[in-house]
Amino acid sequence: MPAKRTLFEKIWEAHLVAQPSGRSPIVYIDLHLVHEVTSPQAFDGLRAAGRKVRQPVRTVATVDHNIPTEPRGTPITDLIAAKQISALQANCKEFGVLLFDMDSPEQGIVHVIGPELGLTRPGMTIVCGDSHTSTHGAFGALAFGIGTSEVEHVLATQCLAQQTPKTMKIDVRGRLAEGVTAKDLALGIIGQIGTDGATGHVIEYAGEAVRALSMEGRMTLCNMSIEAGARAGMVAPDEITFAYVKGKRFAPRDGAWEKAIECWRSLPTDEGASFDKVVEIDAAQLCPFVTWGTNPGMVAPVTGRVPDVGSLKESDRRSTELALQYMGLEPGKRIEDIGIDRVFIGSCTNSRLEDLRAAARVAKGHHVSSKVRAMVVPGSQTVKRAAEQEGLHRVFLDAGFEWRESGCSMCLGMNPDILQPGERCASTSNRNFEGRQGRGGRTHLVSPMMAAAAAIAGHFTDIRNWKFQ
Amino acid sequence: MKPFRTHRGRVAPLDRVNVDTDQIIPKQFLKRIERTGFGQFLFYDWRFDASGKKKNEGFVLDEPRYQGASILVAGRNFGCGSSREHAVWALADFGFRAVISSSFADIFANNSTKNGFLTVCLKEGEAAELMRRSGELEDYRLSIDLEQCEVRDDQGFRAKFPVDEFVRHCLLNGLDDIGLTLQHEAEIAAYEALHPPPAALQSAR
Questions:
Q1: Is the CB of A319 less than 8 angstroms away from the CB of B22?
Q2: Which pTM value belongs to this model?
Q3: Does A59 touch chain B (CB under 8 A)?
């Protein structure tokens, strides 16, 4: 009888090209996504060695990190950013790589457009020079972030030499309550296991609450895997996955579709397969979360308080003190008493249509607090168009939110969308590191609904008590 | 790649946990399209004020006693966050050859191996002891021996560290791993013959 295998093991084994003795296994990469920030040095490396892109057909590029979110005709005033963008354009042309450029109707954040173009499919190996590549694991793919040297490696060989990661199952029992989203699930998990709780592991998210998530929710959850230190995060493909992929631009069609589905159905982890580590999460214990510190594990329920440093164990005290000092928060402060200056709804974590719908439902009939500047940045041009067809942009604009063009924007502040020193932001992005959204800026991570509610209230507020209009 | 066999150098302590790559090299410096010149921006927001002047309170790497340090000792989960290889380039360009910690983020550790830069993972107590010694002793120096997988000082400290055998082989010999993978050209071609890319992608260009 064949050994019981996990979803990860099935994909890993199907992609082994060679297993040289005494060396890391060589794994084939089905899809390589490329963006402007981590690729220029890799293309230079190819040129210096006289190498080509081995599989241009498996390589897809877009511009997202640097680009302004002002109307597309506005010239890029940051000359170094403009140079990086033109370097990608030139590299794609020279090496024959398909580029979804600034003016493309399908441009967007690399982890938003991969799935919506049907480039991301179950059972694939996917890499990108970006840590949030874990997002694509939502489809039951093995997807992970790599550095620029490995970008060059994949461009040149379509393979990577990788040590075999360990496996971890996160079993989420029960259902999420109303107002508790995939983002809250992700924050709750990181709060429990820590920002290095999954280092060296590929996570498979399982359990009733995960099965009940939409593809957008699964993408949010897998996106944040890296914030727990994981190599990748995955969810087994099912009917929800197939329904999402079907009909997408690069999805298989007709006979190829039937064949693909049949193969995808064999991917889920076999009953009785074992993991190196298993973590259980009780969905009933989860609530809307807000981060209070400078990493995503520093998290509290919206009804809770900033920790009291005195009550912490010695080893956590210093990092908590440093975090609270940076965040300008006094120990023991109620989360709902924290006032905000800015709101950012966007990023590869939470910028998809479902996220914007959820935020718009909160914003409808209300107005952004006079103290707050709030922006909504759709993840892609496709998301933007779909939202506008539903009139979501009207809801946001009427409520006093800015409605912008697609890109990574204020998630990492490489473009002009940044916080000023001391400004406090409710953000749907993935990292609350010092200075992440702008030097001296203070980031609190929340779900799209919680962000919209904070924009209107001017401070954090429990979405479960919101008066929807 | 520059080989790493043994290295002896001055040690600087960075007594913080979860040092993320956004701190190692802030995003405003990621727009350069070269691999060089990042050292001047290392830990920029911790070292310099908004106008670009060195901060008065002083960052550990700017203290005179740590000038020329080539080994950094830091708290656990060093290099977490973004995959930016610029973090390794900045540390190496600044003059570091190795970081010692009780744990590293996966992508950072992986990136290091491609740049002849060593991540030395010690037990929590050992790393804490080196943190203490480098803070208390003047001109504290360590030897890192990748052949023996051992860290030593002149005061009798000795600790073994784990390293993947293949990674060690590449570092010791400064091997280019693209070249190593291409030794398997026949196997890659055979795999590709069995797994052609989807038709939709082929017709898109």
A1: no
A2: 0.97
A3: no
